[in-house]
C-alpha cells in the first residue's frame, strides 16, 4: 500500500508567551519567559508560587458568559487556538466534505479546575449532592474534540489521546496515521491543558516535581543548567491542521511543512521517572526516524522534551546521543519549555508548532535561562543557549515524554513538490 502524504496547513496557539501563533513565535525567537507569580489563586501556603499562566485571555469575551460557564478552561483554550488555526488554514467547511474531517485532541488531565471546584463545593455543603449538571461534561478529557466537532460540524474520527505529557504528540501521530491511510481528508489536532490551580500546583509540589525558585520565577525553567530544580507548570493550547496533500493542493492551501512520521514507545521502568539510560526515549526517536524513512543526517533540529528536572534532562541527552550518534554535534537542540513552561498534555502540540516554524523560517528557538554549565553534558553539543540561531532547517524532530513511561516523537520537514 502506498501511503498518502500529509501536510500542515494551519496553526493556532494560546500560550504563556503569546495568544496567537505570531505572538508565540515572536516570544520564542526573542527568548521571552512566560513565568511569573500565580494570579489565579492564593499561593501563600504553597511551596511553588509561580507558573507560566496564559495572560489576558477573556473567555467571556471570546465565548460569551453563558457558554463560557459550561466549559472548563482546557476546552476554552482548545476552542480559542482552533479558531485561529481554522482561519489560518482558510477553511470554509461549507465547501468541504465534513464527513471526512476529524478531530483528534490531546490532554493529559482534562477538566481539573471543574473537578476541583465541584468537590470543594460538595465538601463545604451539608452533605446533599448538589452538583452542577455540567460537572461531568465539563470535566471529561474527550469533551474538547467533541466541542470542536460540534462547532464546525465535523463528523470524521473524534477522540482524545491521554498519555500524560506525550498526549498531544500522540494526537498528531494518530491523525497523521489516519490521513496517510486514506481514512480522512483532514484533521484538527493538537492539545490543551489547564492545571494551574490549587490541585494542580499542590499535586505536583507533593511529588517534588516543580521548581521552587520563588525568588526568581522568570529564570526558574532552566533546562540543562547545573542548577535546574524542577519544571515550571504551564497552560494553554496548540492546534495544527493536518491535511492529505492532494486535498490541500486541490483547495489551494498554503503549506507550512510536511509531516513525515511519528514514533511511540514505553519506558517500562517507573511510574514517574524516566529510564536512567534513556532507553524508551532513544527507542521512540529511532522509531520516528524509521517511520519517516529518514536518518539522523536528515534532521537539523530537535525540540527536546527538556523539562528542567535534575533527572529528566540527562536521560534525554543520553537518548539523543544513542539515536543520533556523531550527528548530535551537527544538529541544534533546544527546549522551548524554558520559555513556555511545561504545558503537560498540550506541550507536544505547542512544541510541534515551534518545530514547524523553525523548519519554515530557518530559525532555532533558544534554550533560555542558561547560567552554569553542567559537566554531565558534552560541551560540544549545541543546546542553543540563550539566543536564537539562524540555520537552514531541512527537518525537525520534536519529543514528548509522559508519566507512566509514555514516549512520542514527531518529525516535520520542508515541503517539496
TrEMBL record:
Pathway membership, UniProt: Lipid metabolism; fatty acid biosynthesis
Class of enzymatic activity (EC top level): transferase
Keywords: Acyltransferase, Fatty acid biosynthesis, Fatty acid metabolism, Lipid biosynthesis, Lipid metabolism, Transferase
Catalyzed reactions: a fatty acyl-[ACP] + malonyl-[ACP] + H(+) = a 3-oxoacyl-[ACP] + holo-[ACP] + CO2; (9Z)-hexadecenoyl-[ACP] + malonyl-[ACP] + H(+) = 3-oxo-(11Z)-octadecenoyl-[ACP] + holo-[ACP] + CO2
GO process annotations (BP): fatty acid biosynthetic process
Record-listed E.C. numbers: 2.3.1.179
GO MF assignments: 3-oxoacyl-[acyl-carrier-protein] synthase activity
InterPro entries: 3-oxoacyl-ACP_synth-2 (IPR017568), Beta-ketoacyl_synthase (IPR000794), Ketoacyl_synth_AS (IPR018201), Ketoacyl_synth_C (IPR014031), Ketoacyl_synth_N (IPR014030), PKS_Beta-ketoAc_synthase_dom (IPR020841), Thiolase-like (IPR016039)
Any Pfam family the entry gives: Ketoacyl-synt_C
Domain Ketosynthase family 3 (KS3): start-end pairs: 3-414
Active site: 165
Keyword Oxidoreductase: no
PROSITE patterns (alphabetical): KS3_1, KS3_2
GO cellular component: cytosol
Domain of life: Bacteria
SMART domains: PKS_KS (SM00825)
Role summary: Involved in the type II fatty acid elongation cycle. Catalyzes the elongation of a wide range of acyl-ACP by the addition of two carbons from malonyl-ACP to an acyl acceptor. Can efficiently catalyze the conversion of palmitoleoyl-ACP (cis-hexadec-9-enoyl-ACP) to cis-vaccenoyl-ACP (cis-octadec-11-enoyl-ACP), an essential step in the thermal regulation of fatty acid composition.
Family named by the database record: Belongs to the thiolase-like superfamily. Beta-ketoacyl-ACP synthases family.
Protein name: 3-oxoacyl-[acyl-carrier-protein] synthase 2
Taxon lineage: Bacteria, Pseudomonadati, Bacteroidota, Sphingobacteriia, Sphingobacteriales
Gene that specifies this protein: fabF
Amino acid at each position: 500500500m502506498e501511503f498518502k502524504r500529509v501536510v500542515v496547513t494551519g496553526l493556532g496557539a494560546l500560550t504563556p508567551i503569546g495568544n496567537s501563533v505570531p505572538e508565540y513565535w515572536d516570544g520564542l525567537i526573542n527568548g521571552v519567559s512566560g513565568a511569573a507569580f500565580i494570579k489565579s489563586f492564593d499561593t501563600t501556603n504553597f511551596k511553588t508560587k509561580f507558573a507560566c499562566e496564559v495572560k489576558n485571555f477573556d473567555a467571556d469575551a471570546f465565548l460569551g458568559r453563558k457558554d463560557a460557564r459550561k466549559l472548563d478552561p482546557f476546552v476554552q483554550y482548545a476552542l480559542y487556538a482552533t479558531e485561529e488555526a481554522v482561519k489560518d488554514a482558510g477553511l470554509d467547511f461549507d465547501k468541504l466534505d465534513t464527513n471526512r474531517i476529524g478531530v483528534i485532541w490531546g490532554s493529559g488531565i482534562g477538566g481539573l479546575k471543574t473537578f476541583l471546584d465541584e468537590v470543594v463545593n460538595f465538601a463545604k455543603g451539608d452533605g446533599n449532592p448538589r452538583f452542577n449538571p455540567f460537572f461531568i461534561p465539563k470535566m471529561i478529557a474527550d469533551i474538547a474534540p467533541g466541542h470542536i466537532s460540534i462547532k464546525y460540524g465535523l463528523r470524521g474520527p473524534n477522540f482524545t489521546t491521554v498519555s500524560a505529557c506525550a498526549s498531544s504528540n500522540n494526537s498528531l501521530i494518530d491523525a497523521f496515521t489516519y490521513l496517510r491511510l486514506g481514512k480522512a481528508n483532514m484533521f484538527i489536532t493538537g492539545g490543551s491543558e489547564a492545571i494551574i490551580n490549587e490541585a494542580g500546583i499542590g499535586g505536583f509540589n507533593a511529588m517534588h516535581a516543580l521548581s521552587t525558585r520563588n525568588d526568581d520565577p522568570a529564570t526558574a525553567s532552566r533546562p540543562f543548567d547545573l542548577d535546574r530544580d524542577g519544571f515550571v507548570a504551564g497552560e494553554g493550547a496548540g492546534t495544527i491542521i493536518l491535511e492529505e496533500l492532494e486535498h490541500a493542493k486541490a483547495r489551494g492551501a498554503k503549506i507550512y511543512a510536511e509531516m513525515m512520521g511519528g514514533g511511540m514507545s514505553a519506558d517500562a521502568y517507573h511510574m514517574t521517572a524516566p529510564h536512567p539510560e534513556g532507553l524508551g526515549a532513544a527507542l521512540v526517536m529511532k522509531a520516528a526516524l524509521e517511520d519517516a524513512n529518514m536518518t539522523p543526517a536528515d534532521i537539523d533540529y530537535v525540540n527536546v522534551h527538556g523539562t528542567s528536572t535534575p533527572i529528566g534532562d540527562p536521560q534525554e541527552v543520553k537518548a539523543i546521543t544513542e539515536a543520533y550518534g556523531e550527528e548530535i554535534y551537527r544538529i541544534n537542540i533546544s527546549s522551548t519549555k524554558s520559555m513556555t513552561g511545561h504545558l503537560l498534555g498540550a506541550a507536544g502540540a505547542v512544541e510541534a508548532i515551534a518545530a514547524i516554524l523553525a523548519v519554515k523560517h530557518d530559525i532555532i528557538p533558544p534554550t533560555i535561562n542558561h547560567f552554569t554549565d553542567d559537566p554531565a553534558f558534552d560541551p560540544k553539543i549545541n543546546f542553543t543557549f540563550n539566543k536564537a540561531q539562524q540555520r537552514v532547517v531541512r527537518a525537525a524532530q520534536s519529543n514528548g515524554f509522559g508519566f507512566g513511561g509514555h514516549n512520542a516523537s514527531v518529525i516535520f520537514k520542508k515541503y517539496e513538490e
